[in-house]
Amino acid sequence: MEPTLAGIVGIVAMLALFTTRMPVAYVMTLVGFAGFALLISPQGALSMLSRTYYDTFSSYALSTIPLFILMGQLAFNSGISKRLYECAYQFLGHIRGGLAMATVAACTAFGAVCGSSPATAATMAMVAIPEMKRYGYADSLAAGSVAAGGSMGMIMPPSVVLIIYGVLTGQSIGALFVAGILPAIVLTLLFIVAIAIQCRLRPNLGRGGERGATAARLRSLLGLADTLAIFLLVIGGMFFGLFTPTEAASIGVLGIIALSLLKRQLSWKAFADSLYETLRTSAMVLFLVAGASVFGKFLAVTRIPFDVAGWVAAMDLPNVLIMALILGIYMIGGCFMDALALVMLTIPVFYPVVQHLGYDPIWFGVIIVLVTQIGVITPPVGINAYVVYGMCQKIAPTVTLEAVFKGITPFLLAIIAGIALMMLFPQIVLLLPGLMY
Amino acid sequence: MTEHVPNPGRPSARLFSGLEGGMKVVAAACLMGMALVTGLDVAGRAAMNTPLFGSEEITSILAALVVGFSLPYAHSQGSHIGVEVVYQRLGRRARRMLDFCTRLVSAALFGEIARQMWAYGLDKRAVGQVSMNLGLPTYHVLFALAGCFAVFALFQLRDALRALRRQG
Amino acid sequence: GTRLTYSCFFPPTHVQSQLAEAWCKEVEKRTNGEVAVDFFPGGTLTKAEEAYDGVVQGMSDLGFSVLGYSRGRFPVMAAVDLPLGYRSGWAATQVANQVYAHFKPAEFNDVQPMYFHAHGPGLLHTAKKEVRKLEDLQGLKLRATGNSGQLVKALGGTPVAMSMPDSYQAIQKGVVNGGMYPVETNKGWNMAEVVHFMTETQPVAYTTTFFVVMNKARWESLSPKARQAIAAINVEWAEKHAQAWDASDVVGMEFFKSKGGKVLPLNNGEAERWIKATEPLLAQYVQEAKAKGLDGQAVLNFARQALRKAQQ
Ligand code: NA
Ligand code: NA
């Protein structure tokens, strides 16, 4: 079969198989395997399958995932996240959707130290969704804000995609990181606006409560002092470069265990539950990553990403249209493929074009990250959406996959608005690096 | 997804729940091991300027074992999510047949991965390949993972048969 | 005609990847289209660590990666990566191809090697501390993996193993104090932005050997004429890769200096001390080869002699 045709058939087959309720990760594995076998060789495909699973499971970069999930679990089971949200409620509870806003801001803070989207989504889902549910927030808002907020793991520097982009194009990684900060903050604000608007239109999504008294606010804040110390250690340690994300997560796990033992807040059963729940969700997340990776290898050998990039590069259109087309391709491509693989395959073709059109390379790098992160929250391969849904099965069983995707929609619009804003005002991206480099 | 509470009296049910429970404990131990090894590394680096060389390799190996040994547990907890929209609208008979087919395919898929991992481990052992920094014989990890995937496939097979026997 | 797939882990904009891609085009041209090659850069088909195994298993027909990623698998060729005192990538490439041609080691029986090449001298780079003598390395945490990690340890430093993308941040933030790597990396991974000193440690410079290999069955399925054409291209390309490594080192050095980097010489009489410190590593190589029934001393002697000739 013609590789391009095989690619299209593969995508259709994947969509069709999704309807059988076969787990999403299995379907991506199966279709990716079959396609690879067809285009390369059956033995090559069998080897690819086992190697990709082994690679994913034993990847040091991904080992942050179980550790951060465990940290979230321990925070949940020892009551830390409950107290955290009680405190947030004291301060923000009177605003409609206030807890969802706090969650998005927390995601951005977490993203400032963690380079992975699914890890951010999984950790924050554990901490935030049960609490938002407790305060009567709608499934869609609770799940949507976490799934979308999780994309901040990649958008807010440090970001793996920015590193790879810097290496591919020879741009300064430091400048790219600095350039990514302001857009991430703008996007966080847009997310908050999106929450405010939808809660104004439909107050049921997240009702406002009583305004907390000053004394109660201070008391709730004081009660959190020790917990905040741990979070400051974890986040500050990563920020000041004392440790890598995996190390920070381990410190967080050990710190929370020590603290809860001291304060006798963690029973043996709660500890064991935290471990087992972490196993369950880690397996779920890593299967999704492995499945997406198998499918990505198949898409690579169809050469569709190369071909599409080549066509666009050869088109004779006005600059803005070409740029829009390129961004459109990343948006659609991100729906079927992991952001990193997509960037790796297409940047070499697009980058010279973008430079030729006179766009700033640093600006383009940051925009690419934003655009590919749309992919992690949209079907069919929206890893964050599936991760959040998977987490909810235990912690908030009423949440359906439709609710997750529905909840994501306003945030999707916010990202698109953000990209438009940054196309109109490139200064948002270029201001900080201009000052520093 | 867990529509069955297994009858603990039957030997096969005891085997399955024993496997699941035992592997779960190994996985949990590996998970705590990851946190401890990494914590030791950081503490060593900060306090005595003696980081644990190659701790990344140990962490990665433990991470692989964490996921591998939790496969049966994650499976019977129904962790791997699928899309329910269309499925929910089907009749009971159609659902049963669909479940039978998808689980059989899954069993074959993961059984094959188990076989390939085993072969991969044999290859690595035969050529004498070890890990880059610590020189650890990582083929042991592959053998362990092969075993985990084999058990995982077995669970899929059991569920396929269950779907077939299911009434209605 | 035949269509082959070629997996390379270097990102597509890297000159080594571009050379590999040029190899593909040259093969198509000189076999008159009998053999066409689809090129997959950036590890999109197989990752660096699995590229060799990927060729054996047929995940790709051709693979380009690092021998050192499969530690223990290439006991003869591993001699080339030792800290023998390389002064250029060209010399290291000569040594690699000569060792292979002379010993025809059985470790490559499961593939058809195309050619080998190797990067320029792996040197010591530090962020804040100036290193001029062996004692200065005490207590320094240096990013180094596998082979270079053993070198750092032998010299008295503390090796920290981490991936290249992590290294930039780790050095920037002071988690490690520097690294052992070839000069080109200063530009290739922007390391010059975070390191400020380079010590002229050429007397104990190691290298990293890269391989390009083809699936054996695919090679044997090609016509004798095509195989002959490819063999001729391989000889030329080994030379091109070697020259590219040295040219990258020049660029890396310029970039390093443009960022304010300072090159430090070893103090008087230090070179001998550093060389002496690496001797246990060479002895260990011979020992490990012996355990696999190979005459490691003969390989080592041959490699040293080839290097001496290449650097004359
Ligand atoms: Na981040
Ligand atoms: Na998507």
UniProtKB/TrEMBL annotation, chain A:
A GO term, aspect molecular function: transmembrane transporter activity
Membrane spanning residue stretches: 6-39, 60-80, 100-129, 141-167, 173-197, 218-240, 246-262, 283-300, 320-350, 362-388, 408-432
Every TRAP C4-dicarboxylate transport system permease DctM subunit domain range: 11-428
Alphabetized UniProt keyword annotations: Cell inner membrane, Cell membrane, Membrane, Transmembrane, Transmembrane helix
Keyword Nucleotide-binding on entry: no
Subcellular location: Cell inner membrane
UniProt-listed InterPro entries: DctM (IPR010656), TRAP_DctM (IPR004681)
Principal localisation: membrane
Pfam families to which the protein is assigned, alphabetical: DctM
Protein's membrane topology: Multi-pass membrane protein
Gene Ontology cellular component terms for the protein in this record: plasma membrane
Highest taxon above the source species: Bacteria
NCBIfam families membership: dctM (TIGR00786)
Designated name of the protein: TRAP dicarboxylate transporter, DctM subunit
Species, as recorded: Desulfocurvibacter africanus subsp. africanus str. Walvis Bay
Automatic annotation (TrEMBL), chain B:
One example of a Gene Ontology biological process annotation: C4-dicarboxylate transport
One MF annotation (Gene Ontology) recorded for this entry: transmembrane transporter activity
Primary location recorded for the protein, binned into one broad class: membrane
UniProt source species: Desulfocurvibacter africanus subsp. africanus str. Walvis Bay
Protein name as annotated: Tripartite ATP-independent periplasmic transporter DctQ component
Similarity remark: Belongs to the TRAP transporter small permease family.
One Pfam family of this chain: DctQ
Subcellular location as annotated: Cell inner membrane
